Amino acid sequence: MIKADFHTHSEFSVDSRMTLSEMAERAMELGLEVLCVTDHYELGQCDDLGAEELFDVPRYFDALREVKERYMGKIDIRFGVELGLVKSSKEELHNFVAANNFDFIIGSSHSSNGKKLSNLEFFEGRSEQTAFLECFQSILENVKNLDCYSVYGHLDYVARYGPTKGRNFRIADYHEVLESILRIIIGNGHGIEVNTSGFHYGLGNPHPHKDILALYKELGGEIITVGSDAHTPKRIGADFGRVADLLKSLGFRYYSTFKDKEPMFHNL
Ligand SMILES: [Zn+2]
Ligand SMILES: [Zn+2]
Description:
The protein is α/β, with parallel strands linked by helices and 268 residues long. The chain has one domain: Alpha-Beta Barrel (TIM Barrel). Helices cover 33% and strands 19% of the residues. The chain has helices spanning 20-29, 57-70, 90-99, 128-145, 175-187, 197-200, 210-218, 240-249; strands at 4-5, 34-41, 76-84, 104-108, 111-112, 115-116, 151-152, 191-195, 224-227, 254-259, 262-267. The strands form three sheets. It has a seven-stranded parallel β-sheet, covered by helices on one side. A two-stranded antiparallel ribbon has the order 5-6. Strands 10-11 form a two-stranded antiparallel sheet. Strand 3 (76-84), helix 3 and strand 4 (104-108) form a beta-alpha-beta unit. Helix 4 packs parallel to helix 5 (175-187). The longest helix is centred in the middle third of the chain and has 18 residues, at 128-145. The radius of gyration is 17 Å and the shape is globular. Bound molecules: zinc ion (2 copies).
């Protein structure tokens, strides 16, 4: 059983109103042992991203420390962040991670070449495959240039916003770039996450698609965290049983948690 949710958003993210206490209570109710809070920290590098999504770092750590102490012995709260990765902000991103004592950093792509993946314009005037490929190429550039993350978040997040919602997603169309991405992640000692929000968005798969998980396994990938990407209490721990079954069917035996940026492994 997976007993750790490693992707959750509190009211420190602009798109969540969930308090840290609500999160801790819900996680305990589900029998989870570890909860990692990973609020958005998105530097404003995108032409159309609008305002930067940043939290007040001292306030964030104070609030996390307070809730960690309050729930000590009941649930283990870890300090995380979901960091928007863009290679042009390399120095700023690396400085941010070096300056703050996070347990865990999800590196995510929410944009590609200055365009938000959730905007329809990203797909306009070209095939879904071309748009997906461009996104994967920008992820490849990120992993070649950036080292400020523990796991890469929702690798095929772009699929959820495509006109067919990824129905025609076939790993063969992107095999070369995906293999390069995964080889670099593995070679640099990082991991990937399985993000259960893919089920919530009706993709029938988590992020990433099971075929990408199979490729990761084939290439020797071992570090996998599991996260719900919950923005509301009821989404915490969602579909974890389904993901455990999927990972086991692909030959994985462990999932990971992180403390002080170091991975630990637990039986699935
Ligand atoms: Zn994300
Ligand atoms: Zn998220």
